[in-house]
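Progress narrative, Year 2. Work on CopD family protein from Antribacter soli advanced from sequence curation to structure prediction during this period.
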Amino acid sequence: MTSALAPRFARTLLLAIMISIYCATPAAAHTKLASSDPAGGSTSSGAVAAVTLTFTLPVTPLGDTVVIEGPQGIVDAEITQAQDGTAVVATPGQPLTDGSYAVSWTVTAQDGHPLEGTLAFTVAEDATQPGATPGASTDADPPTSHSAHVMGSMQDHETPPFVDAAGRFGNAATLWGWLVAAGGLAFAGLALRGRDLVDVPVVLAGVRWTGALILAGLALRVAARSVTLVNGDIAAAVAPSAVADALAGTTGWVIGLQAAGALAVLAGTGRTVPGSAIAAAGVLSAGAGFVLDGHSNTMEPRWLVLTADIAHLAAAATWLGGVVMLSVVLRRRQQDGRDLDAALMGARFSVIGAVTLAVVGVTGTLLAIAILDRPAQLWETDWGLALLAKVAVVAVVGIVGAYSHFHIVPLLAAATSRRRHGRSSGDALRRSATPETALMIAIVLITGWLVGASTDV
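Result:
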């Protein structure tokens, strides 16, 4: 691939990724409704004292949680939880008697994703009624609908497609901002030494403004989540109760940690690495939010998955943020008319990039094994195909990085020894960093979709 084709290819791939994410089907989280009593589609032969929904993992009540609608309208019911949070019980003031009933439910999974669904059943106290069995219910398999965004046939408003896309791009913006912030601090501390220290303020200025990007992404994410939970009613989404529902469960902790971290990055980034200690603490706070979010928060063995997740995030940030800041430094040097002089900086980061890329590959594999129930999900589901696409883009970035490591960096070292190709080698390193950055944006966009999607889609 020539230097002229590389940026064009990266931009085209990035555009394709953005379109794919926008058009992708909304998805549910890992937690699912395992069973209900009465079962969906069943006919009970006696009065029903309570409706019990049992999930595969513990859930948090969201909004009204369970709404029962019968022949006389909405039925008042007390909502409680049982079985260590995996069961939600709706107990009506009076047992449900003859008639057809529709139940809609909304909860939040452990990883912060909202889940919704509907089911219907019939109560026929006359044991002789066809299809009714005394003391039991028929058709025990519930035809439920559980989706992070759709309430089946009971929804009053359809959530506009752009709302789901906005939420996904909010996730991606937050992730990109954090990765660049963490990686930028690492790059300033590890790759900029000696005479390269003059560029530390340039890198830290970029780090500071990632805090604003993280906050913007969080606002977009909360807004989209609130609109989704009220089934597309944008006017109702701004109500305090809707916003509170959007922050229910672990989502409140995730958003809170990330927002606090973003504010610390904005206010605490100085002109030197030691003077940016508050920003570093903010990066750790926001990173903790990412660890609490997503599929890895519900996988077992917990200690192994969390360790792999933390290592994956740290390595990805060091790698991605380093590439971005390398491009920023070289571009600033070119704009200022300075000698690019990137030999030592390029050599240092080349080693860092190789190590972090290896860590990203190993930990990413471990996380995929933990999340996927079976290998066939890689090619049978949207989630698996998106993961394969991410791996392919990472591989392309790795090839570009290998080219820089084995070809451009030696030329830079030769130029430092005053043998040849000083400025042209520096230009080549800058040009290779530009498509790498574009490809990494594509990686983050895919990752933002993977965090909010189900492996069953």
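The beta strands are 33-37, 43-44, 51-55, 59-70, 73-75, 77-82, 87-92, 99-109, 114-123. The longest helix spans residues 382-416.
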